[in-house]
Amino acid sequence: MATIEAKGTEGSTLIFVDTTAIKIERKGFINMSANRGVGTRTISMSSINAVEFKDAGYGSGYIQLDVTGNKPLGVSKLIGAKFHKDRVYFTKKQQPQFDKIRELVEKEIYN
After folding, report:
1. Secondary structure of 39-99 as H, E, C letters
2. How far apart are CA 30 and CA 33, in angstroms?
3. H or E segment at 106?
4. Is 77 in a helix, a strand, or coil?
5. pLDDT in tens, 60-81
6. Which CATH number is 37's domain given?
7. Is-above-0.85 flag for pTM?
8. How many distinct structural domains can be found in the chain?
9. CA 75, CA 28: separation in Å to the nearest integer?
């Protein structure tokens, strides 16, 4: 299976690498200032428990990975959810590539 790359907003890129891992690459000042950091984060497919997905509409959509070992955000940290390290935002125009990645990740983790 080929690698699928989806470029999101704010200098973030989500990359589906075969059926073994997801990579989140972050670049730019927005990510650095939001404390998400810059660089590449590789997440093993076996450590992904769920995928949260919001379609883009008038605002941005997002894909967020629930990864084993991450602390849940909880209601008191709702504002911090925007800066979650395993969340990538996208526009309506960018959504088709994120739909493909969501479908492939869900296929891997739920089968």
Report:
1. EEEEEEHHHEEEEEEECCCCCCEEEEEEECCCCCCCHHHCHHHHHCCCEEEECCCCHHHHH
2. 5
3. helix 95-110
4. helix
5. 999 999 888 766 555 444 454 5
6. 2.30.29
7. no
8. 1
9. 28
